[in-house]
Amino acid sequence: MQLLEERILKDGQILGDNILKVDSFLTHQVDYKLMKAIGQVFADAYKEANITKVVTIEASGIAPAVYAAEALDVPMIFAKKHKNITMTEGILTTEVYSFTKQVTSTVSIAGKFLEKDDKVLIVDDFLANGQAAKGLIEIIEQAGAQVEGVGIVIEKSFQDGRRLLEDMKVKVTSLARIARFKDGKPVFARADA
User: Cα separations (Å) of 173 from 6, 46, 144, 189?
Assistant: First the structure.
């Protein structure tokens, strides 16, 4: 997605060897026009899949996921990283390691929001090692629902996330694939497999 790549080049910051900071439009402050365009691209990519739910993990996946859900005219569910006192029954959980935060969290979704006949599109902000998407797939499978695909805003293709998901036989759609960082800038892969 050229609009997204241009925004990454303009406002993204490289931290260390492999961290891209995009807090001015995605992970802290949200550019709703860009997120709406991203949501529409995901909806177009999965329009034939009969998606019934869009699922993400809090927090930075929520904005693109809600716009994808709007474009598909389906509910959006986000997995919570911290169980609260109102989540008392039928909770689906798994453990997820965050590469950026370097912490393992127990993520949860109330089972009443996922049904066996649901066809789910997972949407998330980044794909690096694939652990967040893998965790969401595990939760969706616990509910007996079907994962139709994973939509990723920014993929770091030099890490193992895509391979992990493809080994699980899951379709991955990434809107900006970074092949590597060079001279303080991302170098984009041109094709989305």
Answer: 18, 9, 23, 13
